[in-house]
Amino acid sequence: MTEFILKTNELTKTYGRFNALHNVSITLKPGKIYGLIGQNGSGKSTLMRVISGLSFPTSGDLELFGKSSPRAMQIERKRLGTMIESPSLVLNMNTKENMRAHRIMRGIPNEEIEDELIELVGLGSTGKKKVKNFSLGMKQRLGIAISLINNPELLILDEPINGLDPIGVMEVRNLILKLCREKHITILISSHNLPELFQVATDYIIIHDGEVKQTLTLEQLENKCQRHILIECEEPDKVLGILETELATTNYKVLPNKTVKLYDYVDRKKEVARTLFDNEIMYTNFSVEGDTLENYFLSVIGG
Ligand SMILES: Nc1ncnc2c1ncn2[C@@H]1O[C@H](COP(=O)(O)OP(=O)(O)OP(=O)(O)O)[C@@H](O)[C@H]1O
To answer: Mind telling me which residue stretches traverse the membrane in this protein (predicted)?
Structure first.
């Protein structure tokens, strides 16, 4: 298996003097769901367009499935599926007709893939119903089915849950998880809604004003957001001893910089401080940390 599906190195895209992307360096590994999170106008679609070959970078490099020459990339891009901005659907056609049109346009001979994908995205019962009468969620799922027609290894979905009602969101979310878990497709999905992405993504790329501000795994994000008491001290081992014997908790983490994160007693911090004091533990910092997803996102983008 390729170690990296995609690597970008200092990708920049300018429109006139405006930097839509600035020195974007990211890597995507197989089997993951990457959440590209940023406000409106932060550069999400631009990045997706450049990766998909719909737009050229002004400078910087792109490597797809280990290949970087323009000729090789043209071939490797056949391993991508994309739905950028709204799906391209013919409203006067039904599900099957839309699938067929796209299959023929892409030159894919396997007719069976049409029904397979229609079932996969849960549109098997739509029959003769025309797309113009579909809900937004159904249209998004049909768009995703179309983007899967070439059996892609990397799927790029630009705001697929934007504007959907809660049921539509849930259906698209479940579909994305299914594609990753059962079909082993790596997914890059953009949204301006971190709590929504939080339900599906395994990794996060935070973009703001065309710059990647942070990349982090789900575990790192959870750690950042989980409320805890932060204790910085000279002798963390002694602190742990007190936490276990006096406060009967092992729900803590010790960081290499002599810092203890305690996930219990967050709303009873005076009790912890008193216990440490009574046991003659000196600390240099004692504070409650951690945030909501939205606040964390805002702190990263400087809001
Ligand atoms: N063809 C273009 N010409 C000039 N400016 C552009 C062009 N395409 C995008 N931009 C600008 O680049 C910036 C990034 O746009 P982009 O569409 O990538 O943002 P986005 O994060 O996808 O936003 P949204 O969530 O609203 O879709 C925006 O300020 C946009 O106006």
So the answer is: none
> How far away, in angstroms, is 162 Cα from ligand 1 center?
16
- What number of residues does the chain have? 303
Instruction: Give percent of the chain with pLDDT exceeding 70.
Output: 99
Closest residue CA from atom 16 of ligand 1? 43
**Domains by residue range for the chain, with CATH:** 6-221 (3.40.50.300), 226-301 (3.30.70.980)
Which of 46, 194, 209 maximizes ligand 1 atoms within 8 Å of its Cβ, making it the mutation to test the pocket?
A: 46
- Helices 112-120 and 136-147, packing angle to 10 deg: 140
Predicted confidence band at 303 (pLDDT cuts at 50, 70, 90)? low
Angle at 158 between CA 156 and CA 163, to 5 degrees: 145
For the Cβ of 40 lying below 6 angstroms from any atom of ligand 1, the answer is yes
| 303 DSSP 8-state letter | -
DSSP string, 47-104: HHHHHHTSS--SEEEEEETTB-SHHHHHHHGGGEEEE-SS----TTSBHHHHHHHHHH
* Band of residue 1 on the pLDDT scale cut at 50, 70, 90: low
